[in-house]
Specification:
homodimer; alpha/beta; 12 strands
Chain lengths: 326, 326
């Protein structure tokens, strides 16, 4: 059975591994990115990890057919070039595919990290056994990936699936991207924390104020804990995040009409404290007449989604017949 | 070269014709639906039109390979059954595909009318030469169709592309579908007219009041004319419609990332009076950093889009190799 290597290139860690044609994990390995050493060193580390994985796979599984890399944008997928990711300092128009191909001696494909992770959950996680799935990654920002009828929906400019920048509140809160009222401005982990800090600075009372003084910073999971403890400010901010996520889910339902919407990323660790209110708002907001509601689920693969997705996409490229299984 | 027949089954008219493999129109024909006569009579009329088109095509183009029907929902596309369309009284679980197949002696496929029209514009109209196009039909309601990477995005429950029910204003105006704040509640032809009537009934002054008294009803094109003449109420309502259409376009841009968004339906007759303000709001609302903006265009095929799309989908079904051209 063919197998492939996947690499998830993050600002802090390189997560990698190999899967077989049924998307089963054969081996996995994580190393530090050491991004501050610059692209040459990082690429060398990626090639070294690939060779180590090949050695580990040994003769049993055979040589991997290809390597898939999930990398942060901006990137040019077709050209295999990393343009200028904010969390990889010094990278500018790096021909990553060509260089890893030379260093590892295998065909290499590139995909943006959000799409790779969505594809991973689709083939081996919370979207498995569906043909239409959408993933929302709730981290510092809100990323997204759309699979429609078994294919990644990349779009004409290859910037499809940017669900974090769906406008859920016209003339609403300013987003980092320059738009107003984006989902990300209310429902990313960093904005959830930031909105509580803003409320405290504006004079509102919150248990989070103590934590903020003690720790010097506030995180989204603090807000979730405070909301659960009955703190009014945290309850309101967390409620807003869940409500706007539900608005986004209704809009995804009507546009893409997936079988499942998957929540991933750091904030999805809230589990039922996220799912229950989002589901409640979603049921209230969506149309009553047609029963075409996607299931709302938490992602299953955690930090493995990116490299598994990248490996699966690589395998689909070199063995296209096999890809149709998914 | 193969050819196929398309039929657009409307509540008032049956629009039909035949296209060749390059989506060029060979013949066309329109007859009254006479929906009040019930399904048997309507199906007979559809079969008669098909036979007439076959005769007209004669030996030159050869016998059509198939018939495609675009019909109003609710319908079961795979089963070929019309479930219960509001504007076809007496239709309930009618096996339309089977019956037209028997009556016309050709393979028949079924598609919902909004998808058929979007596909028509995609293969032969304002979306031609793209691979990713979205259409919004601005009529009594707001319909939609999504083509991603050359395929209709039907979704898991086959209710994808219902862009009229995207929430563009949370807790906003009540929509016919039961949701609040749908695009359709602000930007359908009927709601544009209705909002002006509501403003007049609430005591606001508008030139539309005169027209309403004189004609007993107000239409969207009256509102467009009044807005152009400087009427404050019409200007505000039309401005809202265009602004919410722009919000929808931003959300389509980030999710589907098409090359083009096409406006069709009665209200698209407003032409530049629609396009100019929607474009202006869109430029203001979308992110400034990435240049991935779809072109906003008016549909080109008018009432022919539905049957041309249905014919093209039929042709793609019976000659799948050819379909890859589009």
């Amino acid at each position: 059975m063919p197998c492939a290597i996947g690499i998830d290139l993050g600002g802090t860690r390189i997560k990698a591994g190999a899967i077989d044609g049924e998307a089963r994990v054969l081996v996995r390995r994580t190393v530090a990115t050491e991004a501050d050493q610059g692209p040459d060193e990082v690429i060398q580390r990626m090639c070294a990890v690939s060779r180590e994985l090949c050695d580990e796979l040994g003769g049993a599984a055979g040589l991997p057919a290809a390597i898939g890399i999930g990398a942060p944008g901006a990137l040019n997928r077709r050209a295999g070039v990393i343009i200028s990711p904010p969390n990889l300092p010094g990278w500018r128009n790096v021909p990553l595919v060509e260089r890893v191909q030379q260093g590892a001696g295998l065909p290499v494909i590139l995909e943006n990290d959000a799409n790779a992770a969505a594809w991973g959950e689709y083939v081996a996680g919370a979207g498995h056994h569906t043909h239409d799935a959408v993933m929302l990654t709730l981290g510092t920002g809100v990323g997204g990936g759309v699979i429609s009828d078994g294919k990644l929906c990349r779009g004409h400019f290859e910037t499809g699936g940017e669900i974090g920048h769906m406008i859920v509140q016209p003339e609403g809160r300013l987003c980092n991207c320059g738009q107003s009222g984006c989902l990300e401005a209310y429902a990313s982990a960093s904005n959830v924390a930031r909105r509580v800090v803003e409320a405290i600075r504006a004079g509102e009372r919150s248990i989070c104020d103590e934590w903020l003084r003690k720790n010097g910073a506030l995180e989204a999971h603090d807000v979730v804990a405070a909301a659960a403890a009955g703190d009014a400010v945290a309850h309101r901010v967390w409620g807003d995040a869940c409500r706007y996520l539900a608005v986004a889910c209704v809009n995804i339902q009507h546009m893409i009409n997936p079988a499942v919407i998957i929540f991933a990323g750091g904030m999805s660790a809230a589990g039922d404290q996220l799912l229950a209110p989002v589901r409640e708002h979603f049921e209230r907001l969506t149309w009553p007449g047609i029963d075409d509601r996607p299931e709302l689920r938490i992602a299953r693969l955690g930090n493995d989604a990116g490299w598994i997705g990248a490996a699966s996409l690589a395998l689909a490229t070199v063995t296209p017949t096999r890809a149709r299984q998914f």
